[in-house]
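Field notebook, page 352. I keep forgetting to write these up properly, so this time I am using the form the group agreed on. The chain and the ligand, zinc ion, are recorded exactly as supplied. Prediction of the bound pose follows.
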Amino acid sequence: MTAPVSSGRSGLLERLEAGPVLCAEGYLFELERRGYLQAGPFVPEVVLEHPEQVIALHRDFVRAGSDVVEALTYYAHREKLRVVGKDDLLESINRQALRIARDVAQEAGALLAGNICNSNVYDPENPDTHTRTRGMFEEQVAWAADEDVDFVIGETFRYAEEARIALGVIREAGLPAVITLAVGQTPKTREGWSLADACRRLADEGADVVGLNCIRGPATMLPLLPDIVAAVDVPVAALPVPYRTMPEQPTFQSLRDHADAPLPEGRPFPTALDPFTCSRYEVGEFTVAAQAAGVRYFGLCCGAAPHHVRSMAEALGRSPESSRYSDDMSRHAFFGTAPGLATHNREYREQL
Ligand SMILES: [Zn+2]
């Protein structure tokens, strides 16, 4: 494995010492909405086909307050590319994603993160799959190290043991590791460990940040966080999906719309989740509550857009570049209160 270059590698830990770190995610869903990526496969060929779109979204997220530019290598692994018949693109997708992210990180002074994720290969009953999973992670982490990332995010793991493999590979490369688990309807790992136990073990084995990402919305991720915070000494991460999940439908896959809703697959996930989208103010409330619960690494996953990220940054007391355009309804023609607004319009507001 290529030895990582050391420049800036302590950046993540230094920033966490100084205060919360914000990492925008959700690239797949946002690029899908914009028409550059296919729902279902969710393979990020967009880095080769429309790099300008990925660059633009990286910039949008940094402008909204993200401290991290995360390379879009989610699902750019050997298994996914085999499924879509594009194995030959494996290295070029990874390297291109890393270089695009590196360029934006450098221009913005942000951290550069590599990314590995759920393999969809790992099967606890089959040791051969553990070897294959490790091999997939090793090749992606080697490319990330070669492109001089500051740290690597290993995310969306339902099995703690798969997360442990990812952590081991990142540690062997000498890079800081952020490891986050994805929690389904039962608040345990898929092999049945408590989240506190899983995160404690990952922290004990050298993860620099542990926590949860994806699948659950703010309302159903928040209650899971205090046990994790209490179990570990390292910073805890929380990156929910910005959807209105609820106790009886705690994940975005389990959300159900009304009976007459036109749904091609009978459920909103993943392309009809719009009516469940959190407002920016709900994201802000979550951020404040998660910080009070001890979370130190923040972000949003699938479904997030730049306005959500800005709201998170503002809830952390920041004023990112895009806050210049945060709302000011005092100057609205009908709802405003500023001097000089036409009275006949203000009086008409209740008729709107
Ligand atoms: Zn996600």
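OBSERVATIONS:
- The domain at 14-319 is CATH 3.20.20.330 (TIM Barrel).
- Residues 214, 241, 301-302 surround zinc ion (CB under 6 Å).
FOLLOW-UP: compare against the apo run.
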